[in-house]
């Protein structure tokens, strides 16, 4: 029986030598091992040593210190204790950079040229087994995002596009697809991830709502960067710089999806794209297992981002209260702050606006803080006593909230002149 270190640890060891700058930004990976030539007696010895088997289709042995040991296998889902060679096992892996093994003495077994491909910054499939699992197309895009300096080998691109055209991608489990999407959005360069998905026709087949955004023009006075796809990419780039969470990046990705179905005769205007976008997000979330928070945040942003952008122009306290309610400002959760963060990415994901302040966020926070004081006022306590009925009590609270916002809005109007004379540019945007 022989044991080899495999996977990300070997890849990173080679990266450290060939490209220390790229290696320096890699996260530490768990140590994975492959067991070659193990007999049944060897397996029994593992059990006696405290190793525990996990899984049936992919039997993995967990060592007492948590390392993973897999039995060498030649095809997906099959393992033969003493009949599968190391090269057979490495040959069924996805990319050459992941198809290397390291002996105990530190020497590297590299039957498919992974070291040379890392040296030359190339992502290349190992062999025909790449097509066994169409999800590898998304995984390839994710590695492109992790290593944006690397190019994809021409033949590898051809295979991926062929898989997309064959309809094989649609047969992949929605859970697995969405898992790769989330991981890709959190890689070093998620913009590269999306560009590769588009180039390999993955978006066209799995996320057509995003694919059709290319070439859909917008009013140039609000979007000098051009079409909706370019704007979405720029907003996502902003989310990287601001270190947004995966849920927030999902909302950024889908915030303008409704513009893709705007009737051509209305272009470049997109009046009503918020409602259209909500319907598409429902459709996407029915296909893929978005988390409850991802779906709720994406819908909240899609419905309200234009209103958030123009919140400082709202004159009626009842309208401002309605916006605060819709953006979950009055609830004790993170949805309100997440919504503001995504709206800021939308506003700054525009050519020439990348560093422009976004005062709308603090404006709405201040309005929210005004309302947070209402239940503590003497007037509110008197209403609760005088009108114990739940509905009447709620109506009384709304009246107090509107009165509080009305007073606050009047105080805001007194400072308009000062704000207008501020020498900082401010993002005020009209509905589109």
Q: What can you tell me about this protein's structure?
A:
- There is one protein chain.
- With 432 residues, the chain is an alpha+beta fold.
- The chain has two domains: 112 residues, Beta Polymerase, domain 2 (2-Layer Sandwich); 195 residues, Hypothetical protein af1432 (Orthogonal Bundle), CATH 1.10.3210.
- It is 51% helix and 6% strand.
- It contains 21 helices and nine strands.
- α6 runs antiparallel to α9.
- It is elongated, with a radius of gyration of 27 Å.
- It starts with a strand and ends in a 12-residue tail after the last helix.
Helix-strand blueprint:
Blueprint: E1 2-6, H1 8-18, H2 20-23, E2 32-36, H3 40-48, E3 52-54, E4 60-62, E5 68-71, H4 86-91, E6 101-102, E7 108-109, H5 114-119, E8 122-123, H6 136-146, E9 151-152, H7 154-166, H8 174-185, H9 190-199, H10 202-206, H11 208-211, H12 228-241, H13 246-254, H14 273-287, H15 292-309, H16 317-326, H17 335-348, H18 360-372, H19 378-386, H20 390-413, H21 416-420
Parallel strand pairs: 2-5, 8-9
Antiparallel strand pairs: 1-2, 1-6, 3-4, 4-5, 6-7
Helix pairs in contact: 6-8, 6-9, 12-13, 12-17, 13-15, 13-17, 14-15, 15-17, 16-20, 19-20
């Amino acid at each position: 029986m022989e044991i080899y270190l495999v996977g990300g640890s070997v890849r990173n060891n080679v990266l450290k030598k060939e490209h220390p700058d790229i290696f320096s930004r890699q996260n530490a990976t768990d140590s994975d091992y492959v067991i070659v030539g193990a007999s049944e007696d060897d397996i029994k010895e593992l059990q006696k040593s405290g190793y525990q088997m996990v899984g049936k289709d992919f039997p993995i042995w967990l060592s007492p210190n948590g390392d993973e040991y897999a039995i060498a296998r030649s095809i997906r889902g099959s393992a033969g204790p003493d009949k599968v060679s190391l090269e057979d096992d490495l040959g069924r892996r996805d990319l050459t950079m992941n198809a290397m093994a390291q002996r105990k003495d530190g020497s590297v077994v590299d039957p498919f040229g992974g070291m040379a491909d890392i040296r030359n910054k190339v992502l290349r499939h190992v062999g025909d087994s790449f097509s066994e699992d169409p999800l590898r197309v998304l995984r390839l895009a994710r590695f492109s995002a992790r290593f944006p300096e690397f190019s994809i080998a021409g033949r590898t691109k051809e295979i991926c596009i062929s898989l997309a055209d064959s309809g094989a991608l649609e047969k992949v489990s929605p859970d697995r697809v969405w898992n790769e999407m989330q991981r890709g959005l959190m890689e070093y360069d998620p913009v590269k991830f999306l560009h590769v998905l588009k180039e390999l026709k993955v978006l066209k087949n799995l996320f057509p709502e995003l694919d059709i955004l290319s070439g859909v023009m917008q009013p140039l006075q609000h979007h000098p960067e051009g079409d909706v796809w370019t704007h979405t990419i720029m907003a996502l780039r902003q989310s990287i710089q601001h270190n947004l969470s995966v849920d927030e990046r999902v909302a950024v990705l889908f915030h303008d999806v409704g513009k893709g179905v705007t009737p051509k005769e209305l272009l470049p205007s997109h009046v009503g794209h918020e409602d259209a976008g909500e319907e598409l997000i429902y459709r996407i979330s029915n296909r893929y297992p978005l988390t409850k928070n991802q779906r709720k945040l994406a819908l909240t942003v899609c419905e309200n981002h234009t209103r958030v952008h123009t919140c400082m122009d709202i004159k009626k306290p009842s309208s401002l209260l309605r916006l605060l309610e819709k953006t979950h400002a009055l609830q004790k959760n993170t949805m309100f702050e997440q919504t503001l963060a995504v709206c800021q990415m939308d506003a700054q994901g525009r050519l020439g606006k990348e560093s422009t302040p976004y005062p709308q966020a603090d404006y709405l926070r201040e309005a929210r803080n005004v309302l947070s004081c209402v239940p503590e006022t003497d007037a509110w306590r008197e209403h609760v006593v005088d009108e114990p009925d739940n509905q009447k009590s709620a109506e009384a609270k709304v009246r107090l909230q509107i009165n509080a916002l009305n007073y606050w809005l009047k105080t805001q109007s007194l400072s308009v002149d000062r704000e207008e004379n501020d020498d900082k540019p401010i993002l005020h945007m009209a509905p589109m």
